[in-house]
Amino acid sequence: CRTAGPAVMPTISSCKRRSPELRRRGLPVARVADAIPYCSSDWALLREEEKEKYAEMAREWRAAQGKDSGPSEKQKPVSTPLRRPGMLVPKQNVSPPDISSLSLKSDQALLGGIFYFLNIFSHGELPPHCEQRFLPCEIGCVKYSLQEGIMADFHSFINPGEIPRGFRFHCQAASDSSHKIPISNFESGHDQATVLQNLYRFIHPYPGNWPPIYCKSDDRARVNWCLKHMAKASEIRRDLELLTVEDLVVGIYQQKFLKEPSKTWVRSLLDVAMWDYSSNTRCKWHEENDILFCALAVCRKIAYCISNSLATLFGIQLTEAHVPLQDYEASNSVTPKMVVLDAGRYQKLRVESPGFSHFNYSNQEQRSNTPIGDYPSGVKISGQNSSVRGRGITRLLESISNSSSNIHKFSNCETSLSPYMSQKDGYKSFSSLS
Amino acid sequence: MSGRARVRARGIARSPSAAEVGRTPVSPSPTSVALSDNEASSSSGFVETSQISPNCKDGISSGNVGSTFMERGVTINRNFMDLDICTRGKLAHVRDCKTGSSGIPVKLVTNLFSLDLPQDWQLYQYHVTYIPDLASRRLRIALLYSHSEFSNKAKAFDGAILFLSQKLEEKITELSSETQRGETVKMTITLTRELPSSSPVCIQVFNIIFRKILKKLSMYQIGRNFYNPSEPVEIPQHKLSLWPGFAISVSQFESGLLVSADVSYKVLRDETVLEFMTALCYKTGSSCFIETCEKQLTGLIVLTRYNNKTYRIDDIDWSVRPTHTFQKRDGTEITYVDYYKQQYDITLSDLNQPMLVSLLKSKRNNNTEAQLVHLVPELCFLTGLTDQAASDFQLMKAVAEETRLGPLGRQQRLARLVDNIQRNKDARFELETWGLHFGSQMSLTGRVVPSEKILMQDHVCQPVSSADWSKDIRTCKILSAQSLNTWLILCSNRTENVTESFLNCLRKVGSAMGFNVDYPKIIKVQENPAAFLRAIQQHVHPDIQLVMCILPSNQKNYYDSIKKYLSSDCPVPSQCVLARTLNKQGMMMSIATKIAMQMTCKLGGELWAVEIPLKSLMVVGIDVCKDALSKEVVIGCVASVNPRITRWFSRCILQRTVTDVADCLKVFMTGALNKWYKYNHDLPARIIVYRDGVGDGQLKTLIEYEVPQLLNSVTEASSNTSCRLSVIVIRKKCMPRFFTEMNRTVQNPPLGTVVDSEATRPEWYDFYLISQAACRGTVNPTYYNVIYDDNGLKPDHMQRLTFKLCHLYYNWPGLVSIPAPCLYAHKMTFLVAQSIHKEPSLELANSLFYL
Predict the structure, then answer these.
(1) pTM above 0.80, yes or no
(2) Paired strand residues for B162
(3) What's the complex ipTM?
């Protein structure tokens, strides 16, 4: 997957610079993203110092864009202006996708491109007058590509250091309301230098260019601050480039469909509750304590969401690395995790067969025999009447397969080309997508 | 869903909660600094060092009004900011008369007392400068007050601005004094303003005067209210004591200046932090003592009785001992032990105790570093109730017995307060020098508007009591209900049987009320939130009308994850029921009835109606609250979409702003008007908006920012037809209370009592309405202020309409405290702020999915 390395790809700035030129040549370049395919072939021909020049410009440009992004650019989830596909004009305040890490010659390159999703949790946020604004306590990072899904992950607790005097309550309250990581005496916390070193080793195992790192725009300020803070503590100098997932999604989408999705759509795509309790999503500690807020889970869920909505658009067969399929597939096997009953039948049956009270007993027996997994599995369509049982099983299997296919249908239409949203009174519509 | 939330949403008399009785303000003093008579805040209450310093009140009391006026003009306290706004003048139809006439007159006693002053009374505002300039406010005050010229005058001075009730002879007076060090200081006192008694500044000064008076009655200010530590009510079995006290404020009412007084209690624990720590250490052992101690103590509010101030414990400093020294503001070093001995004559017994650390909110300039104070655990008393205590039924009952005063008890307490003020020489003197006369308790005449008939499908019923008509409608069919054919029940193995019998019950009551409930698909799941969520994900498909979850416990995780998924990711109406609720055998029928009603509404059904004479009227309710996690502002808007006012369009919008002023109203209104148009093929002729969740001092913003948004959307939608708008601000908490006198005792006034004279404000089109029943305690009237009104409805009609709307809350078969759309909006914002944390899907907007 790393063949499509950063060396052969055009930077945004070169595309931007060359757009007018391309337009003069009669190519349909309305916006930077459109210029990329035309530039990418030329890019390889550039000399090294030319590339360097463009890279520098890209850095500056990105720095300027970076300032714009952040909380201020958040849009109201209302009244997304209707735009016809042909009318797309680059909007000044929406930072174009940073696709610099992708070779965009083809879908294939895009699919193979590797992204890292990073999140760092803090014990709350201290007021502006404090020197220490955050107390990093947990880090999660995921290596991902559209093709492969999650390729590796990294998770660690961080020793937040001494809590500034007077802020114990503040930090405690912040922790209690979210990740619930103890603010002191938490033996799993590693010292910041080690964590940072491990993170670097994770995202950059071999010499060469550093990949860009993505996090949600809401978290960007915090993650950035924590990275800098930890770097200070460890005296490792390495400014990671932190970009927003929202822009990445916009970029991929644009690349594939040559249309710009709305921020609202991107946000709703990334913010879903359906994976909250999925297995193998949270870190061990958060899973065991059944706490939803986990830095690793945030990263994994980003990957799930992107897989579920974007990867499917590329026609990729989702694997367990893309979304926690195992939770759903398990139910298609012979031992579903729950019993489905038709209560109506249940009622009648109770009248017909007094032996039905066996139900509970036999079910328990079944359960005790099955290996204890995440869930003790075991379905038992009970009843003495064989004809009822047979029909029940058929129905059950039908219903399960229906529902499990529904699930994917459902989430697809929810998060990808949402017909739901577009039909709603016009104010959440993206006619550009339909 | 939780009982508490529901009761709160319903708005009927609440059982005392911890927050209510032992209200523990996070900031120890009033939010607004300006003109607060907070002596400690002004007279070097804190030994202000850059280092950590303990808090103490200075022994010197000059009996002054130490208030933080701004250098030139006076900053108006937020409470008084609204007073400047005059909305009535713009409303032509009520300029002359805003009182109604329908209904039966009823004589009411109030908790308002007249405050008389001479006709030509004026307040004189002076500006005082010192040469050479003096930094110490205390010194400034002492120098000015030492002049004979002021000794017998009524005065209020903060070191820069001086208020007098009598004019000085000269416009500019020059005085000179000598300090103790022999320095001569020249003071120049310049008249800056003459204020009539109705000016907001005057109102503020009156409030200061009354605070002084309460202090003279040996009451202490804690938070905004005054308490009397010398007459505590002890509840020894729970180690609690209650300090009785009053909330007092002076304001300009229709008939002149009135003082309103309400009874308040402070819940204190008879336990110092040191005692608590010792007990904890004994219990946990020393190994994990520090950790447990920090966990349990931080965040609690303590009261230091030596100065009667409250602090929040933010941290514990284990390295500092009372024998350590700190730097006072004048630079001298002193140990904590010596300091308390000198300042308060308190001897500390335990010299090895650690110190509590509290973070003070910076009052004057917000950007400076927060101040830390050290507090001695031995001197800190715990206040309020712990969650554990609040869930102790016996304890709460004991507290409630004391604090939930009925009308009679309240009346007696008020009478005693008045008596005390009139008997106390100092208090009387203070009033007299200002030229004020504290008068009698005011009584007025209200009106009881006629009760409403409840319209069911083929039956009109006149409920026996409009507080609760559940019995009256038991045999009637509801207006409309969608048949429930395809639905799911999720339950655990343990709750299977009870689910079974509940389902039977539900079907039975459903068919009686005209709500057809088919057999659902029952799914048995493991008892954990993940299993519930996964089962929902697997079995919910677009045909499913409703998902019911029988929750094994009231753990928030279950409810939150289910609601989040089903309101937003995959919008399907959901009904969560606690298994515990279903175990109450004898109540199964009534529980099933209530749940059936909720389910009907979630499917878009209508339960009942009242007669609304206005045709083509849309009512809108707006409420605002803060998200529990992200602190975003959650704005809930609910609008009726049929002329009968039984169907609603609900939308919740999250706003990334700091202020709780809505800036998305146009989007909502456009959506609501579109909906109305879709159903009625026309636009509503009238729109009445009820706005709840308005804080002190926000009236102006509302008028200037929210009303234009509403107007704008209305005019844009109806270019050719005229569509008239009214906006009414609702306050659930207001100072006045009303009692009826009956057989020589006082009682809560009957439901439907309207007060629109005397206790109202002259500059507003406002009225009070009592639409909720209080089973215990004293009923709290709801205050309505019409800030914009194009409709030109007669006050009578406006009041009647408001009362009618209080009948339409489908979660409670009875009257509620505020109009139904507002309560719906409140319920929705509560759900979003507590559980969903994102905008619910618009798919659900046509049903009351949040009930």
Answers:
(1) no
(2) B126, B157
(3) 0.76
